[in-house]
Design goal:
210 residues; Rossmann fold; 5 strands; binds uridine-5'-diphosphate; binds magnesium ion; P-loop_NTPase; pyrimidine biosynthesis; phosphotransferase activity, phosphate group as acceptor; nucleus
């Protein structure tokens, strides 16, 4: 078995999970400001690949996103690995980016067990999972609100329903897997952005031993 591309003693990876609309992207942006993370959204990377001239995966990605299903892991993992390598090469200034070290928030990934196992084994062992939890009611209202301006092909009632199903059936087992390993930090994301941010900040500071 080959070893991971990145050594987890130098490269810190935090997976950021939670239902669609839980506030992962918003809170990641805040944590970038606080701690100098590189924020990688799997969904954003997939959308960029979907629209990239000459991509052989464009149609496949579009269909999966609309149907709320999971793109085959090889595609997503390669996109993440490439983005991580590019960020490491960039040689960013700031905390956690000296002497071959780096820190990443991997947002909206892994959504399926096979991705989780493969990423940990071949790219980098994740240190923790930040799990933003809230009710389906809250998720739905946030997604419908976002849908008014997001232009996203999956922020409509029909796609949302399918995404909820995938989340419950396919992604919850991933969270349970890391929970059993004692690596999940759960944060109630029902309150305001500011309150959730405060809690996330405290949790991440503890994890990074600030
Ligand atoms: N997706 C995927 N694999 C991933 C992450 C996302 O296939 O690892 C696809 C999936 O179809 C998902 C869509 O991308 O429903 C949108 O993901 P995104 O993270 O942007 O949604 P969010 O959670 O932010 O609402
Ligand atoms: Mg998102």
């Amino acid at each position: 078995m080959s070893s991971p591309v990145f050594d987890h003693n130098k490269v810190t990876v935090i997976f950021v999970l939670g239902g669609p609309g839980a506030g992962k992207g918003t809170q990641c942006a805040n944590l970038v400001e606080d701690f100098g993370f590189c924020h990688l959204s799997a969904g954003d990377l997939l959308r960029a690949e979907q629209h990239r001239q000459g991509s052989e995966f464009g149609e496949l990605i579009q269909t999966c996103i609309k149907e709320g299903t999971i793109v085959p892991m090889e595609v997503t993992i390669k996109l993440l690995e490439n983005a991580m390598a590019a960020a490491m090469k960039e040689n960013r200034a700031g905390d956690g980016w000296k002497d071959g070290k780096g820190r990443f928030l991997v947002d909206g990934f892994p959504r399926k067990m096979d991705q989780a196992l493969k990423f940990d084994e071949s790219v980098c062992m994740a240190s923790a999972v930040l799990f933003f939890s809230t009710t389906e009611e809250v998720l739905l209202s946030r997604l419908l609100e976002r849908g008014k301006t997001s232009g996203r092909e999956d922020d409509n009632e029909e796609s949302i329903k399918k995404r909820f199903n995938t989340y419950k059936e396919t992604t919850m087992p991933v969270i349970n897997h890391y929970e059993a390993l004692g690596r999940v930090i759960e944060i109630d994301s029902s309150p305001s952005v500011e309150i959730v941010h405060e809690q996330a900040k405290v949790a991440v500071a503890k994890l990074l031993r600030y």
